[in-house]
From TrEMBL:
PANTHER family per the UniProt record, alphabetical: F-BOX ONLY PROTEIN 25, LD30288P
Organismal lineage: Eukaryota, Metazoa, Chordata, Craniata, Vertebrata
Pathway note: Protein modification; protein ubiquitination
Major site of localization recorded for this protein: nucleus
GO terms of biological process kind: protein ubiquitination
Annotated compartments: Nucleus
Record key words, sorted: Nucleus, Ubl conjugation pathway
InterPro entries: F-box-like_dom_sf, FBX25/32
Protein name per its UniProtKB record: F-box only protein 25
Function statement: Substrate-recognition component of the SCF (SKP1-CUL1-F-box protein)-type E3 ubiquitin ligase complex. May play a role in accumulation of expanded polyglutamine (polyQ) protein huntingtin (HTT).
GO cellular component: cytoplasm; nucleus; SCF ubiquitin ligase complex
Cross-referenced Gene3D superfamilies: 1.20.1280.50
Length: 361
């Protein structure tokens, strides 16, 4: 296969192994060159180990293996001087060509689309968490070693973010519950052969998940001190308008627990009726009618009953997009090098389930 690069005489890209997988860095980085010179000096030194009774001196040739290992550890831990992907898109292809390899993996997509940074964006946080939750339910057995590493690294950053700023802990609790339940079934019930990698590694990961669940269970919400305008100071019509903007019933219930006024507004029958009509069809209502003591339809109970039988509509602040012309997956605000005459007509929003389906082979 011919080498395709900016210059055919170029030695190619330089790759560095990090905790998130293999990353590409600039061929000539002053910080890395300084690190190389310091590490090269180690290979010419003499290492002395032992105690008062026994002392062993290794020659220069015996130090080569230790020096190489220290270089690897240095590059693995020194991420400040590395220059990684600037483009946040990935070419999704399922067929082999003379120019490209036959497939791209889920782990590669995690790397290229920069999910580690995406969780810091409040618009993308729910999208990434939902994606990880779907993988936990159905794709754990198909994850490669690199994909597993990226998956749990991103999960660790999500947990740390929730612990620091207390943002949407309910969402991550549901994710960890699904992940722990799936792992328990795969490890204890199905057997060892279904999971890629050493079974002891998966047991350690399960213990880490249980530790995260305990930390989130003990999470105390910090009470914010604000002398300015608060939510309670808003007029009733504005508070009611805020409640009508929610698409998740649990968010309505949570907000209703803040003040008695919000609780009264959150119990409005018309509010829950609109929510049911948004997520479910009229035929689904007729199959699961729930009446109150007064003979009226209890729309609040209807919502949670229908949720058990039918999927609700997903709503995210920002999602990945797929260009049908270029077969490229990307974040919309970062863009991609599209060659179509009218790129906007080729874009298609990608749901978390659609993202997983793109990488099924």
């Amino acid at each position: 296969m011919p080498f395709l690069g900016q210059d055919w005489r170029s030695p190619g890209w330089r790759w560095v192994k990090t905790e998130d997988g293999w990353k590409r860095c600039e061929p000539f980085s002053p910080a890395l060159e300084d690190g190389n010179s310091q590490l090269n000096d180690i290979s010419h030194a003499v290492i002395i180990t032992g105690d008062d009774e026994h002392e062993e001196i290794f020659s220069t040739e015996d130090c080569e293996f230790a020096a190489k290992k220290r270089k690897k550890d240095h590059f693995r831990n020194n991420t400040d001087s590395q220059c990684f992907y600037r483009e946040k898109w990935i070419y999704v292809h399922k067929e082999s060509t003379r120019e490209r390899h036959g497939y791209c993996t889920l782990g590669e997509a995690f790397n290229r689309l920069d999910f580690s940074s995406a969780i810091q964006d409040i618009r993308r946080f729910n999208y990434v968490v939902k994606l990880l939750q779907l993988i936990a339910k159905s794709q754990l057995t198909s994850l490669s070693g690199a994909a597993q590493k990226n998956y749990f690294n991103i999960l660790d950053k999500i947990v740390r973010k929730v612990m620091e700023d207390q943002y949407n802990p309910r969402l991550i609790k549901d994710l960890l519950q699904d992940l722990s339940s799936t792992l328990c079934i795969l490890i204890r019930g199905v057997g060892k052969s279904v999971l890629v990698g050493n079974i002891n590694i998966w047991i350690c990961r399960l213990e880490t998940i249980l530790l995260w669940q305990q930390q989130l269970k003990n999470l105390q919400m910090n009470k914010q001190v604000n002398n300015g305008l608060t939510l309670s100071d808003l007029p009733l019509h504005m508070l009611n308008n805020i409640l009508y903007r929610f698409s998740d019933g649990w968010d309505i219930i949570t907000l209703g627990q803040v003040t008695p006024t919000l609780y009264m507004l959150s119990e409005d029958r018309q509010l829950w009726k609109k929510l049911c009509q948004y997520h479910f069809a009229e035929k689904q209502f007729c199959r699961h009618l729930i009446l109150s003591e007064k003979g009226h339809i209890d729309w609040k109970l209807m919502y949670f009953a229908l949720q058990k039988y039918y999927p609700i509509k997903e709503q995210y602040g920002d999602t990945l997009h797929f260009c049908r012309h270029c077969s490229i997956l990307f974040w919309k605000d970062t863009g991609h090098p599209c060659t179509a005459s009218d790129p906007n007509t080729c874009l298609m929003p990608v749901s978390p389930q659609h993202f997983i389906d793109l990488f099924k082979f």
